[in-house]
Every structure is written in structure tokens, then in C-alpha cells.
Amino acid sequence: MDLAKAGVEDFWVGSPVAPLFAPESVPFMAVALALIGFVFTSFFSLQENMLPTEKEFIEAAIKHKVLSFGSFTLKSGRQSPYFFNAGNFNTGQSLATVSKLYAKTILESGVEFDVIFGPAYKGIPLAASVSIALSQLQNSSASNIHDSSATENKAYPFAFDRKEAKTHGEGGMIVGSSIENKRVLIIDDVITAGTAITNSFELIKKNGGIPVAVVVAIDRQEIASAETSNTSAIQQVYQKFGIPVYPIVKLDTIIEFLASSDSEFNHFLPTIQEYRNKYAC
């Protein structure tokens, strides 16, 4: 045993890395160990880079099967390893959760608006519930301020459109609050080809409104079509209408979440990354 120990010690002393562990090399070792610790921590703590809003949204979307993993054929004909269906936020509890996250994203964006607009059909419950969530967040903030007058009292009116024009009663295509001469914030679930947003933009302008921004649940971060080169549907909206689009999460965030969690869907990660690389914009 002593001979073996002596042999190891002789090998260690003669090793090229031995000087690094000498007393006079302590500062170097401190830096090296700190760097190793940083890399280790960064690799195993990716979720710490995620905003709480993003993490909560992904968890809620998976829980309520809004975000599904597998093999799905999109309208574009692409085979996608994931699918997002906001229609599965179909209970009071799930809708309350997602509406709160929409509201937080809106407030964090700093966009100024007068009316929330939800395109039919999926945008209708979103517009109503997000309006409620914004009011609740406002009241919560006001309760934490001694001088309630310091918090702007906004009513957060909302509106939505009909698929078919109504010829009796109040008539028209817009239901809810008036959008005439108002700054309008469009709420939707996801932008794919951008057709729905184009229709909403034109309808709002036709009725005297001023579209100022769009808030969606997810940015797929992929080219809209082969003809658009490296341009995504969201980028096309900005280029065409000059208004920003604020997503709650991006595909990169979902990839980050799967890579840093013990989710049962982790095995889909390579396929999703391959899809991301293939259609990246």
C-alpha cells in the first residue's frame, strides 16, 4: 500500500498540472474553480434565466394540454413536434391563470392603449378575461399604495368582432366598447400566417380605431413560408403594420424549460431543437 501511495505521489509531483495546485497558485485555482462552478450552475439552472411569467405559463399550458408534444400537421403542411391550442384553456381556473399572465405581459411591455380587442372566436373570451385580470392587478397594486390616487384608475374596456355583420339592433361588426379614435391593443393566441391579424387590423382601422400592438401567447420563431426567407409571421406583422407584437413565451423559452426540468416530455427535446433549426428565422 505504501509503495502504491508513493507511486501515486511521484506521478502527481511529476504531473504537468501539479504547479497549478501549489500554494503560490492559489489565486489561479480560485479563478479556475469559480469558472467551473459558473459553468456547472449555468448548465443545471437554466430555469433561473426564465421570467416567472414564462415559467408559470409553460407549466399551465402543459397542465391543461394547451401545449402538446408529439407529431402534428400544421396548416402550412409542416410536421411539428409540438402544438399549441389555446382553446383548451376552457375552465374558469385555467382561463383566470392565462389571463393573469397576459395581463402581466401587457403591463411589462409598457404599451399604452385605450381598448382591448379580441378577434372572433378565440380572442373573445381572452379579451374579456384579460380586461378583468388587468383591473384586478390594478386594484392589487392600489391596495399596496397608501395614496390610491397615485395609481391610475383605468376601466380597461374591451371589444370583439362578429363573423357576420348584424343588420338589426345596434348593428355593425364590433361588439362591446367603441374603438373609434381609440388606441386598440389586439389580443390573440398565436400568429401563424398573420392572416387573422391582418383582418383584425383592417377591421379596426375601418371602424375608426388605431391599432397600437398585439399580444399573443407564443412566438413560434419560425419562417412563415418559403417565400418569406428568414421572416417570421410576427416579424411580418411589424414590417407590414409598424406595430410591435409581444409574446408571453417564445419557442426558445419552451426548449429552455424542457432542457432544465424533469418533465415527462424531455425526450421530445431533440426533435423540437431539430425543428427549430430547420425553420429558424
UniProtKB/TrEMBL annotation:
GO CC annotation: cytoplasm
- Signal sequence, start to end: none
Q: What InterPro entries does the database record attribute to this sequence?
A: OPRT, Or_phspho_trans_dom, PRTase-like, PRTase_dom
So where does this one cross the membrane?
26-46
Q: Where is the Phosphoribosyltransferase domain?
A: 93-222
The answer to whether UniProt assigns keyword Glycosyltransferase to this entry is yes
| The enzyme's E.C. designation | 2.4.2.10
Pathway this chain belongs to: Pyrimidine metabolism; UMP biosynthesis via de novo pathway; UMP from orotate: step 1/2
**What molecular function terms (GO) are annotated for this protein?**
orotate phosphoribosyltransferase activity
Alphabetized, the UniProt keywords read: Glycosyltransferase, Membrane, Pyrimidine biosynthesis, Transferase, Transmembrane, Transmembrane helix
Q: What class of enzyme is it?
A: transferase
What Gene Ontology terms for biological process does this UniProt record contain? 'de novo' pyrimidine nucleobase biosynthetic process; 'de novo' UMP biosynthetic process; pyrimidine ribonucleoside biosynthetic process
Taxonomy, superkingdom: Eukaryota
What does the subunit comment say?
Homodimer.
Q: NCBIfam families recorded for this chain?
A: pyrE
Tell me the function of this protein. Catalyzes the transfer of a ribosyl phosphate group from 5-phosphoribose 1-diphosphate to orotate, leading to the formation of orotidine monophosphate (OMP).
Protein family according to the UniProt entry:
Belongs to the purine/pyrimidine phosphoribosyltransferase family. PyrE subfamily.
Q: What is this protein called?
A: orotate phosphoribosyltransferase
| Organism from which the protein derives | Smittium culicis
